[in-house]
């Protein structure tokens, strides 16, 4: 059952989730210290600890409710994007993540934030919400709203719980930059209908080899409407748990 669930997750989302679990497991077993994983510009530049550029996106804290909460959000919205607007476009989805991560790494030296995984997750929430603007949602049954307001509702709820808004705001900002350049700018007359964020051919080839013609079990995409209207989705269980009716 777990095996079927695991392989039912699209490849990029599945790989990211696996790396997060592997990183957290290594820390739980004292094989790796979280101090060697967080973003540290001095260690990266002076000591060439380049792995920190990746591990800052892979550690969400020790195993516990907070970790499961972050994994739920990461897997849910990464999967919705990969099975929706990025369906059969694994390279484009991976390129979006790489671009977002790069922008966050450029911002990180100027703010006091060690791990950027939550910001990357929030970026995906923002992009999904903007691309599904007719989806209706509700928060704890208290009020209803459409999907584009989801990041702001989650941001407000996080602040009410006493958390810093910096992590969420970074995700919203980077997500908006990607959404504008990819979805809005190509429609403007000045763009000449040209996409700025065209995925490099080498990334397309690598993803094709890894996910479509690689070894192991293949993945069959299930079509998920990108703009599914209908009944409201409930945000229950605290923060952002959606249930399709």
Textual characterization of the structure:
It is a single chain. It is built from ten helices and four strands. The chain has helices at residues 2-8, 11-28, 41-46, 52-55, 65-83, 90-107, 117-131, 150-160, 166-184, 201-212; strands at residues 136-139, 143-146, 233-236, 241-243. A four-stranded mixed β-sheet has the order 2-1-3-4, with no helix packed on it.
Low-pLDDT residue intervals, each spanning 5 or more residues: 213-225, 227-245
Q: What is the β-strand count?
A: 4
Secondary-structure element pattern, one letter each: HHHHHHHEEHHHEE
Helix content: 40-55%
What's the average pLDDT? 84
Strand content: 5-15%
Distance between the termini: 24 Å
Strand order of the largest sheet: 2-1-3-4
Q: Please compute the radius of gyration using only Cα atoms.
A: 18 Å
> Overall 3D geometry?
globular
**Main pleated-sheet profile:** 4 strands, mixed
Helix/strand-derived category reads: alpha+beta
From the structure provided, what is the oligomeric state, counting identical versus distinct chains? single chain
